[in-house]
């Protein structure tokens, strides 16, 4: 064997210091029955394993049978979480080979129930719980050498878990689920990912009174104490991993926007609910417009729910509209935002400063009908005659039959996106939207839905979920070693996805590529994001060739490599 071959074969083996039970109990390193006889000799595994030496393919098959035996989505979720905590290679092989079937189980919608019932199925630690009583120990907790290789973090404080509200420590299901997609769809090595839950208490009384609740039993810390805690966390993260990517997830209302604004110039960070959701909503809308043929600047877009996600979507769409050669002011005129008190108007109740640019003028809506002083969705639809309806309200059924039928009177192909998650919070059911519009609606939903029936034909529904965006966005950020996440990088992710939407101009095509292609898309999105990071001067690599090399180096395939005993490790 020449030197080169030796070098290659050495690269493909892993030096492992654990043995026996410790090795089998490491989800990252465990191979279960796939440990070879030689590895069983070296690592003292004989007797701990049944005699059969199997393959990853067989293991995937065995787990698939076990999964199919589970009767409910929640049981399947729990089964897969157990698998993830016992053998990550099988877990990811199962996911990568069956994306369409697995995503609704490890992610939305089942992850919602996974968070609600987190304490029932808590078994083994995964990720980090940073609880308020441990606020002086954060640096110490993060300092463990186990975390030396961390490149990305998803953090939540559990207060706005999907549309399900405050789940306290159970919110950990979301960072775990998002990071499962970092690996399954982005290809990022699980060893580089750290899910974190900031446990600052919960105002969910059911959790507080439950004897099995695993979180800190205390009402939420708020105000300055809460901000100081988050600040301590971010400072500790920056000190521990100066180049880490920090993704914010499912923070409530104003906290999400506040933290993004406060920290985006301090470290490499983005908020998935604001920026990821905006990117996928914009991409799907532009795909729909390819079907209708009406340019974006001529669309009238109603956004129901004008919190962080609504604002994120509106701001990004406004940028795309400006790209069609209109002024920022004209671009803003395309939007009608509806929040808790109906249409957002200049002198309306509780209009926040960041919402103000989209508030409609009072004189413009004088004479519009209203209910108890509030201009409702139906009133807006009657008067503004919108072409697009986007829901990020968390309110199931907010898109009423009456409003949708009214919309369909004025628009040949109404574009309707009920984006709230999970399924139980969707603003409408796709089949209803199809029925109420005689099959004319172009539909995208946040949660997965079965294909709808249009004139006896099955039409797939685009899952307009940030899962199309954040895994590739994260991979692009990591591969380009970006210092910051710019708006242009998020827009590049959306623009790249738009390049791959189905071009079929008929009403039977989905508005997005099949989710089964998400892993391949993740790489393309990463390439576009990394390229933009270079253009924006944020990348710490020189050019696109270097980017391609980094992408290759960062993409992990779930497969076993041979193990050797680490030199110096006790055998
Ligand atoms: O997790 C999802 O499915 C999408 C998302 O970010 C949310 O709804 O908060
Ligand atoms: Mg979210």
TrEMBL record:
One of its GO terms (molecular function) is NAD binding. Keywords: Metal-binding, NAD, Oxidoreductase. Residues 84-264 form the Malic enzyme N-terminal domain. Its cofactor is Mn(2+); Mg(2+). Pfam families: malic, Malic_M. Divalent metal cations. Prefers magnesium or manganese. (S)-malate binds at residues 160, 421, 465. Residues 274-534 form the Malic enzyme NAD-binding domain. InterPro entries: Aminoacid_DH-like_N_sf (IPR046346), Malic_enzyme_CS (IPR015884), Malic_N_dom (IPR012301), Malic_N_dom_sf (IPR037062), Malic_NAD-bd (IPR012302), Malic_OxRdtase (IPR001891), NAD(P)-bd_dom_sf (IPR036291). Transmembrane segments: none annotated. A divalent metal cation binds at residues 249-250, 273. SMART domains: malic, Malic_M. Belongs to the malic enzymes family. This is NAD-dependent malic enzyme.
